[in-house]
Design a protein that fits this description.
Rossmann fold, 5 helices, 7-stranded mixed sheet, 33% helix, single chain, alpha/beta
Protein backbone atom coordinates (compact mmCIF):
# COMPACT_ATOMS: atom_id res chain seq x y z
CA UNK A 1 0.00 0.00 0.00
CA UNK A 2 1.23 3.48 -0.89
CA UNK A 3 0.99 6.15 1.79
CA UNK A 4 2.29 9.64 2.39
CA UNK A 5 4.19 9.11 5.63
CA UNK A 6 5.53 12.62 6.10
CA UNK A 7 4.37 16.06 5.00
CA UNK A 8 5.35 19.54 6.10
CA UNK A 9 4.88 23.13 5.03
CA UNK A 10 7.99 24.69 3.48
CA UNK A 11 7.29 28.24 2.29
CA UNK A 12 4.75 30.57 0.70
CA UNK A 13 5.72 32.70 -2.27
CA UNK A 14 3.84 35.38 -4.24
CA UNK A 15 5.36 34.36 -7.59
CA UNK A 16 7.96 32.18 -9.29
CA UNK A 17 10.79 34.42 -8.05
CA UNK A 18 10.06 33.35 -4.50
CA UNK A 19 9.89 29.65 -5.28
CA UNK A 20 12.34 27.50 -3.31
CA UNK A 21 15.46 26.35 -5.10
CA UNK A 22 15.09 22.65 -5.66
CA UNK A 23 16.76 21.36 -8.79
CA UNK A 24 16.31 17.71 -7.94
CA UNK A 25 12.90 17.61 -6.30
CA UNK A 26 9.86 16.88 -8.45
CA UNK A 27 6.90 19.20 -8.00
CA UNK A 28 3.26 18.13 -8.11
CA UNK A 29 1.06 21.16 -8.72
CA UNK A 30 -2.54 21.36 -7.51
CA UNK A 31 -4.73 23.89 -9.27
CA UNK A 32 -8.44 24.54 -9.09
CA UNK A 33 -11.16 27.10 -9.24
CA UNK A 34 -11.81 28.60 -5.81
CA UNK A 35 -13.98 26.55 -3.46
CA UNK A 36 -13.50 23.23 -5.26
CA UNK A 37 -11.93 21.55 -2.23
CA UNK A 38 -8.22 21.76 -3.01
CA UNK A 39 -7.05 22.26 0.58
CA UNK A 40 -9.33 19.48 1.80
CA UNK A 41 -7.87 17.13 -0.79
CA UNK A 42 -4.29 17.99 0.19
CA UNK A 43 -5.13 17.30 3.82
CA UNK A 44 -6.87 14.03 2.97
CA UNK A 45 -4.05 12.76 0.73
CA UNK A 46 -1.43 13.46 3.38
CA UNK A 47 -3.66 12.39 6.29
CA UNK A 48 -2.69 15.69 7.88
CA UNK A 49 -5.76 17.73 8.82
CA UNK A 50 -3.95 21.03 9.27
CA UNK A 51 -1.43 20.87 6.44
CA UNK A 52 -3.30 23.15 4.04
CA UNK A 53 -5.54 25.80 5.55
CA UNK A 54 -9.16 25.50 4.47
CA UNK A 55 -10.38 29.06 3.99
CA UNK A 56 -13.97 30.07 4.68
CA UNK A 57 -13.51 32.88 2.13
CA UNK A 58 -13.00 31.55 -1.40
CA UNK A 59 -10.30 33.44 -3.27
CA UNK A 60 -8.61 34.64 -0.10
CA UNK A 61 -5.27 32.88 -0.56
CA UNK A 62 -3.11 34.43 -3.26
CA UNK A 63 0.22 32.81 -2.43
CA UNK A 64 1.86 29.71 -3.86
CA UNK A 65 2.32 27.26 -0.96
CA UNK A 66 4.98 24.53 -0.95
CA UNK A 67 4.92 21.29 1.05
CA UNK A 68 7.55 18.55 1.24
CA UNK A 69 5.97 15.10 1.07
CA UNK A 70 7.36 11.60 1.44
CA UNK A 71 5.62 8.64 -0.19
CA UNK A 72 6.27 5.11 1.04
CA UNK A 73 5.41 1.70 -0.31
CA UNK A 74 4.45 -0.16 2.86
CA UNK A 75 5.23 -3.51 1.22
CA UNK A 76 8.83 -2.64 0.28
CA UNK A 77 9.59 0.38 2.52
CA UNK A 78 10.76 2.22 -0.61
CA UNK A 79 10.37 5.99 -0.32
CA UNK A 80 9.88 8.64 -2.98
CA UNK A 81 10.01 12.37 -2.40
CA UNK A 82 8.21 15.31 -3.97
CA UNK A 83 6.92 18.80 -3.34
CA UNK A 84 3.21 19.47 -3.36
CA UNK A 85 2.57 22.96 -4.74
CA UNK A 86 -0.76 24.54 -3.81
CA UNK A 87 -1.56 27.27 -6.35
CA UNK A 88 -4.08 30.00 -5.53
CA UNK A 89 -7.63 29.31 -6.63
CA UNK A 90 -8.39 30.91 -9.96
CA UNK A 91 -11.38 32.74 -11.31
CA UNK A 92 -13.02 34.01 -8.15
CA UNK A 93 -15.31 36.90 -9.10
CA UNK A 94 -15.05 38.95 -5.89
CA UNK A 95 -11.32 39.61 -6.25
CA UNK A 96 -10.58 43.08 -7.63
CA UNK A 97 -9.61 43.26 -11.30
CA UNK A 98 -6.09 44.56 -10.67
CA UNK A 99 -5.32 41.85 -8.10
CA UNK A 100 -6.89 39.23 -10.35
CA UNK A 101 -4.75 40.34 -13.29
CA UNK A 102 -1.47 40.18 -11.30
CA UNK A 103 -2.54 36.93 -9.73
CA UNK A 104 -3.32 35.23 -13.04
CA UNK A 105 -0.08 36.49 -14.61
CA UNK A 106 1.91 35.00 -11.72
CA UNK A 107 0.12 31.68 -12.13
CA UNK A 108 0.65 31.69 -15.88
CA UNK A 109 4.36 32.45 -15.47
CA UNK A 110 4.72 29.75 -12.86
CA UNK A 111 2.95 27.08 -14.89
CA UNK A 112 4.75 27.90 -18.12
CA UNK A 113 8.26 28.49 -16.74
CA UNK A 114 8.77 26.31 -13.67
CA UNK A 115 10.86 23.39 -14.91
CA UNK A 116 10.56 21.46 -11.63
CA UNK A 117 6.90 20.73 -12.30
CA UNK A 118 6.39 17.07 -13.17
CA UNK A 119 2.66 16.68 -12.57
CA UNK A 120 -0.25 19.08 -13.00
CA UNK A 121 -3.36 18.14 -11.04
CA UNK A 122 -6.44 20.01 -12.24
CA UNK A 123 -9.29 19.71 -9.75
CA UNK A 124 -12.88 20.16 -10.92
CA UNK A 125 -16.08 20.17 -8.85
CA UNK A 126 -17.98 17.12 -10.08
CA UNK A 127 -21.25 19.05 -9.89
CA UNK A 128 -19.99 21.60 -12.42
CA UNK A 129 -17.92 19.64 -14.95
CA UNK A 130 -18.38 21.92 -17.96
CA UNK A 131 -17.47 25.42 -16.79
CA UNK A 132 -15.69 27.55 -19.39
CA UNK A 133 -12.91 28.44 -16.95
CA UNK A 134 -12.04 24.77 -16.41
CA UNK A 135 -12.09 24.13 -20.15
CA UNK A 136 -9.68 27.06 -20.57
CA UNK A 137 -7.36 25.69 -17.89
CA UNK A 138 -7.37 22.24 -19.48
CA UNK A 139 -6.50 23.74 -22.86
CA UNK A 140 -3.79 25.93 -21.31
CA UNK A 141 -2.16 22.94 -19.63
CA UNK A 142 -2.14 20.91 -22.84
CA UNK A 143 -0.63 23.85 -24.74
CA UNK A 144 1.99 24.78 -22.12
CA UNK A 145 3.10 21.44 -20.68
CA UNK A 146 5.93 19.45 -22.22
CA UNK A 147 6.23 15.76 -23.01
CA UNK A 148 7.95 15.02 -19.68
CA UNK A 149 5.05 16.42 -17.63
CA UNK A 150 1.86 14.63 -16.63
CA UNK A 151 -1.65 16.12 -16.40
CA UNK A 152 -4.20 14.52 -14.07
CA UNK A 153 -7.83 15.55 -14.02
CA UNK A 154 -9.54 14.93 -10.68
CA UNK A 155 -13.22 15.47 -9.94
CA UNK A 156 -13.86 16.41 -6.30
CA UNK A 157 -16.89 16.01 -4.03
CA UNK A 158 -18.02 12.86 -5.82
CA UNK A 159 -20.12 11.96 -2.76
CA UNK A 160 -22.46 14.79 -3.77
CA UNK A 161 -23.62 12.82 -6.85
CA UNK A 162 -25.86 9.79 -6.90
CA UNK A 163 -24.68 6.58 -8.59
CA UNK A 164 -26.39 7.36 -11.89
CA UNK A 165 -24.75 10.81 -12.03
CA UNK A 166 -21.36 9.32 -11.12
CA UNK A 167 -21.63 6.72 -13.89
CA UNK A 168 -22.51 9.41 -16.43
CA UNK A 169 -19.50 11.51 -15.38
CA UNK A 170 -17.18 8.51 -15.63
CA UNK A 171 -18.42 7.74 -19.14
CA UNK A 172 -17.85 11.34 -20.18
CA UNK A 173 -14.41 11.62 -18.55
CA UNK A 174 -13.02 8.05 -18.59
CA UNK A 175 -9.45 9.12 -17.77
CA UNK A 176 -10.37 11.32 -14.81
CA UNK A 177 -10.12 10.30 -11.15
CA UNK A 178 -13.16 10.66 -8.89
CA UNK A 179 -12.55 11.57 -5.23
CA UNK A 180 -14.30 12.62 -2.06
CA UNK A 181 -12.10 14.16 0.61
CA UNK A 182 -14.92 14.02 3.13
CA UNK A 183 -15.41 10.27 2.62
CA UNK A 184 -11.70 9.56 1.90
CA UNK A 185 -12.70 8.03 -1.42
CA UNK A 186 -10.11 7.89 -4.19
CA UNK A 187 -7.18 8.94 -1.99
CA UNK A 188 -5.39 5.60 -2.34
CA UNK A 189 -5.77 5.70 -6.12
CA UNK A 190 -4.31 9.21 -6.35
CA UNK A 191 -1.33 8.32 -4.15
CA UNK A 192 -0.71 5.12 -6.13
CA UNK A 193 -0.66 7.05 -9.41
CA UNK A 194 1.64 9.78 -8.06
CA UNK A 195 4.02 7.20 -6.58
CA UNK A 196 4.20 5.38 -9.91
CA UNK A 197 4.83 8.62 -11.81
CA UNK A 198 7.65 9.55 -9.43
CA UNK A 199 9.16 6.11 -9.97
CA UNK A 200 8.89 6.44 -13.74
CA UNK A 201 10.62 9.82 -13.58
CA UNK A 202 13.48 8.30 -11.57
CA UNK A 203 13.83 5.43 -14.01
CA UNK A 204 14.03 7.87 -16.92
CA UNK A 205 16.75 10.06 -15.34
Amino acid sequence: MIEIVDSKFVISAPDIKGAPESDVQDEIVFMARSNVGKSSLLNALTNHKGLAKVSSSPGKTRLINYFDVTFMDRDTDEKRFAKFVDLPGFGYAKVSKSIKSDWEKNLTDYIAKRLNIKVFIHLIDCRHPHLDIDKSVSEFLVENSNESQYILQIFTKIDKLNQKEQNKLRREFPNAIMVSSAKKRGMQKVNNILYKILGDLTDND
